[in-house]
Amino acid sequence: MHHERYASGTDTGVATTVPQEMTVEENGQRVATVVVEPGQTLLDAGLAAGLPMPFSCTVGNCGECMVRLRGGEVTQNGPNCLTPGQQADGFVLACMSCPLSTVTLDIAPPQ
Question: Which PROSITE patterns would you find in this protein's record (predicted)?
Answer without folding.
Answer: 2FE2S_FER_2
